[in-house]
Amino acid sequence: MLKRVLIFSSTLMCGIVFCGCSTGWSSFYTAVMTPEEVEELRDEGKIKQVKYVDVKVVSDSEFANKMELYKERCYYIGYSSFNGPYENPTSAREKARQVGANTVLAYVEYTDTVNGSYTYMQPTQETTNYYGNFNATYNNGFGYGGFSGTSTTYGSIPVTQHYSVRRFDHTAGYFYCD
Asked: Please, which residues have CB within 8 angstroms of residue 24's CB and are 6 or more apart in sequence?
């Protein structure tokens, strides 16, 4: 039983890690231009099909000035902003492709660490083996024999898991630049 639980948990984690789950860059995206507006610019030849997305990472102090500069020179398509565990800004490339952006201007800044704990019930299994021999005398007769068996006890014990998560502010602007 415990083995099945561990195999299921491992399989579930692999599925989460390798299936390309949504990133914060995608989940917290806000459109400035609608998909229809982007498509209209594409029809007019002002925006081309995106083949490569350039991700530019800047410091927090540079970000506001760079955003204004990019808004003047490029088409501002949208932005992402969220706080959570660190996510590499290059992970924003897929969202940029989806919305028609060829440039991502991003910054990531550490904010705090969240500590905590949770308790869950860990299944337990204990098997006891019994075996032995016996001799008996009865009315001038003699007998002997043996016995063996097992008993398995199932239960659970509480296990406390501690965690520490470093959190970061993530911000990105999505642009189409010539």
From this structure: 80, 82, 84, 87, 170
Please give the chain's pLDDT, 178 residues, in tens: 444 444 444 444 444 444 456 899 999 999 999 999 999 999 999 999 889 999 999 998 899 999 999 999 999 999 999 999 999 999 999 999 999 999 999 999 999 999 999 999 999 999 989 888 878 777 777 878 888 889 999 999 999 999 999 999 999 999 999 8
Cβ contacts of residue 86 below 8 Å, gap of 6+? 108, 166, 168
What is the Cα–Cα distance from 100 to 42, expressed in whole angstroms? 9
Question: In whole angstroms, what is the distance from residue 102 CA to residue 174 CA?
Answer: 8
CA dist 62 and 26 (Å) reads 23
How many helical (H) and strand (E) elements, i.e. helices and strands, does the chain have?
5, 5
CA–CA dist 95, 91 (Å, integer): 8
Domain boundaries, the chain: 23-176
Both tokens of residue 169? 């502010």
Answer yes or no: are the C-beta atoms of 170 and 82 closer than 8 Å.
yes
143 to each of 45, 52, 64, 106, how far by Cα in Å?
101, 88, 95, 87
- CA-closest candidate to residue 173, choices 46, 25, 37: 25
